[in-house]
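Troubleshooting log. The previous run stalled partway through. Resubmitting the same two chains, unchanged.
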Amino acid sequence: MKDAIISARGLARSYSRGSEQVHALRATDLSIGRGEFISIVGPSGSGKSTLLHLLGLLETPSAGSISLGGREMIGLKERDLVKERRGSIGFVFQQFLLLPTLTVEENIELPLLFSRKPVSKDRIAGIMEMLELSHRARHLPHQLSGGEMQRVSIGRALVNEPRVIMADEPTGNLDTATADKIYSLFKKLNQGGLSLIVVTHNMELAGKADRVIRLRDGRIISD
Amino acid sequence: MNIFSLAAKNLMRRHVRTVLTVAGVAIAIAVLFSLLSFNAGYERQLGGELNSLGIHMLAVPKGCPYEAASLIIHGGVIPKYLSYSDLEHVQKIDGIEVASPMLLHQFFKDDKPHIVYGINIEEQKALKPWWKVEGRYFNDDETGVMIVGRSLADKENLKVGQVLDFGPDKAPTTIVGILERTGNQDDEFHFLPLGAAQRVFGKEGQLTTIAIKVKDLSKISDISKKLEQIPDIQVVTMTQVMGTIMNLVGSAQALLFSVIIIALFISAVGIINTLIMSVNERTREFGMMKAVGASGWDVSRLIVIETLIITLAGCAVGLLVALVGSKLVEGFVRGVIPYSPGGELISIDPLLILVCIGFALAIGLLCSIYPAVRCARLTPMEAMRSDLE
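Second attempt completed without errors. Output:
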């Protein structure tokens, strides 16, 4: 195992649905090394997205602990969690979630607005060039293809120079060829030293990662 | 890109809705500003008009003294008269500097009312030292002469030296002077020597009022009590006249204020509705923003700024409409209030503009608090999963 960038112990998430108690994730231990490319797979309702959201500090676990870069996250105040999300994690969503009134360039810049970092036009241009979006810089999301929108979403995740990219079904809305390109991009980013955790249904794409974690019924069944 | 441009772009996403909300705020602010401006302008003009009468109190026939006083100031005729013996009684009271008898008469020409004042010129000059005349003043014992106000002269195209057929008997009357503009009701009147006016209108020995100027303002109350001991006389001080008129106007203002409160309430409900709809539609986006590093404060700030843009834009449009439409508003309020002084009734005061801007800011902040706080409290995943209600 490489140096752990994220580790979780006894991580669990349950919630009430009417009178029923749903255990989305049961006591889970996990360690993710620096520079790893991990796929999390499993059927719908297996808890893979819940695991990703907990590791990404997007929701609060019902039990367990999460350590990010050696620092315990449970019990931190919201403002400290915000700092960690800004500085350490970049998120990519299945539905892209781009702001429709912002251009490609502005969507990529958006996290800098919240992290109060100065906007480096060169850096934004560099990200767009790497993502092959330079010619689309002034375009609005509705003028883009699905693959282009997801690349913008990846650019937005990269702009704060995170330690890890977390992607939730990033190819769920894309055709096979485009999905392949997105995975190739992930591979390229990983080769540059970035850690990646990608949730997917697609076993073929999952196989391109260094490590595949399988979940079922809220538990890790293979790693 | 900054938080303001982001907020502005968000608002333009539903531009029809945004424009309608801005219009709602604009209407409320325009009405608020117009009423506040009118209130300030009205009091100032009324005070100025009463001061410009140059008198401290009026002796009028017993009856309804305040109504009589209003009519006299505005130019009207009351059906009761004082006599010269009343004038003698008044003149005997200590502390009175000038007691000037006047006769008012109204006649119609081309369906328009004209007001005639019969006056003693030297006493009037003492009461109104700012009077200046083109031509000359008349003497009290002259007949067939008159002075006219500047506005009246302009409207009727009257010149010094012109001879008019005046009064019920169409007696030839020469305009010997035209008053320089005073800015008050005097600009609209005809002035005749008192004796001549009484003869022309068949009111010999009759007086409509006695205008009184006292030597010492602190003695007004004592002098007023002494005057009231004279049979047939009631006394109205200018302070009382102003208070009475303001009370009469107050009821009209209360009606207008209630309309404004309803307009503002509707506007506020509209803004809150728009905001909640807008926040509901974008809950997932706010979740995304939090996931990429926005804090609850960032999201709240964005919602508050969007609201303030709407309310301040509405405020700017409303103020512009109110400034441009002030003449229309003035015409409207003149129609609904019982007494309106001359001059500009709408007073454009920078302080009132600040009050309206402050009010718009307050409405914006109040309306945005609920959706902003609600959205700020959600975790990123709660926001991305749920639809707010």
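Takeaways: The mean pLDDT of chain A is 88. Chain A is about 35% helix and 30% strand.
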